[in-house]
Write a structure and sequence with these properties.
By secondary structure, the chain is an alpha/beta fold. It folds into two domains: 184 residues, 3-Layer(aba) Sandwich (Rossmann fold), CATH 3.40.50; 174 residues, NAD(P)-binding Rossmann-like Domain (Rossmann fold, 3-Layer(aba) Sandwich). Helices cover 37% and strands 16% of the residues. Strands 3-2-1-4-5-6-14-15 form an eight-stranded mixed sheet, with helices on both faces. Helix 9 links the parallel strand 10 and strand 11. The longest helix has 22 residues. It is globular, with a radius of gyration of 21 Å.
């Protein structure tokens, strides 16, 4: 199979779809890999490393998209990339279609076969989302702590305080991979951390593993409101695979917080779990609503591309090899987890969560514009 890796063009996105080590594995399996010149530079991976691994380097994105049967990307197609999508080609990337009806419309119009990293499953886990969730989770308290400083307009509290002063109070909404990573990092910085989740089994697990260092609280509107009001930093990490994130933190809850409090929405890729969340960029990461600061960068792991690109390739490569070695239909027929990653094919949606989120905004007919992935693969 001919596999293409274009340069990412999203704002301040320095990750790349695969490392030279991943290219070498694909070449070993007798596949051809086409990489756009400069695609890996932001991740500390020069073109020469890709050449030595066996990739063919080309100067433009148009050549990559025009020739490749399988496109490997990090983030969803944007801007000039969207017209390059085409029927008969497979796109494998973080897509987050539920949060972006316009992108969904472009994907459907193109007829491309779109497989989303974030909906691929292994049992009850999301193996391709997990590494980036870990990165975003570990970064979130660091970013929040920075924006809590007076110089950034924050309240001026230090996460761990010093003897004789109070420590910052951190609320983590959602106890998944990102939420746990955020909670552990915040606790390691000395903050008082409360984790809120609807899953009592998961809260029990966190309490046991972390030996009571994290305060756990069952999710309810009242518990969320009281925890948010008392917090200096709120980290949102709520996820429903493939679907738009629920808006659990309302504008009224935030308005009751201390002036200069900070909210970091890790769930912004899926629309965000705060009522007033809207996507921002690394170039312009924050905005104020009233007296509170929102940080809603949609590609947080892009800030540490050397770590993120390596972690992403470690997770995606086994699935890429399955698709390349067997073709996407056979690979999905043999792997139900990969099948769950199929979001769209030949102009129809194939993931129920995405369909539920975008059917209204796009005026779609679920009877005509949705087919279960299993039917598509078997047809």
């Amino acid at each position: 199979m001919l596999i293409g890796v274009p340069t990412e063009i999203k704002n301040n996105e320095f990750r790349v779809g695969i490392t030279p080590a991943g290219v070498a594995e694909l070449v070993h399996h007798r596949h051809e890999v086409l990489v756009q010149e400069g695609a890996g530079v932001g991740s500390g991976l020069p073109d020469e490393d890709y050449r030595r691994a066996g990739a063919r380097m080309v100067p433009t994105a148009e050549e990559v998209w025009g020739e490749a049967e399988l496109i490997l990307k990090v983030k969803e197609p944007t801007g000039t990339e969207r017209p390059l999508m085409r029927r008969g080609q497979v796109l494998f990337a973080y897509l987050h279609l539920a949060a972006d009806p316009q992108l969904t419309h472009a994907v459907l119009d193109s007829g491309t076969t779109a497989i989303a990293y974030e909906t691929v499953t292994r049992g009850r886990t999301l193996p391709l989302l997990a590494p980036m969730s870990q990165v975003a989770g570990r970064l979130a308290p660091v970013l929040g702590a920075y924006h809590l400083t007076e110089a950034q307009g924050g309240s001026g509290i230090l996460m761990g305080g010093v003897p004789g002063t109070r420590r910052a109070r951190v609320a983590v909404i959602g106890a998944g991979v990102a939420g746990e990573a955020a909670a552990v990092m915040a606790a390691g910085m000395g903050a008082e951390v409360t984790v809120v989740d609807i899953n009592l089994e998961r809260l029990t697990q966190l309490d046991t593993v972390h030996q009571g260092r994290l305060r756990t609280l069952a999710s309810s509107k009242l518990n969320i409101a009281e925890t948010v009001e008392a917090a200096d930093l709120v980290i949102g990490s709520v996820l429903i695979p493939g679907a738009a994130a629920p808006k659990l933190v309302t504008a009224d809850m935030v308005a009751a917080m201390h002036p200069g409090s900070v909210l970091v929405d890790i769930a912004i890729d899926q629309g965000g779990c705060f009522e007033n969340s809207r996507p921002t960029t690394h170039q312009d990461p924050t905005y104020r609503v009233g007296e509170q600061i929102y940080y809603c960068v949609a590609n947080i792991p892009g800030a540490v591309p050397q770590t993120s690109t390596a972690a992403l390739t470690n997770a995606t490569l086994p699935f890429v090899l399955k698709i390349a070695d067997r073709g996407w239909r056979e690979a999905m027929a043999q792997d139900e987890g990969l099948l769950s990653g199929l979001n769209a094919h030949d102009g129809v949606l194939t993931h129920q969560g995405v369909t539920d989120a975008v059917a209204g905004p796009l005026g779609l007919d679920p009877q005509l514009d949705y087919r279960p992935a299993s039917e598509v693969v078997s047809s």
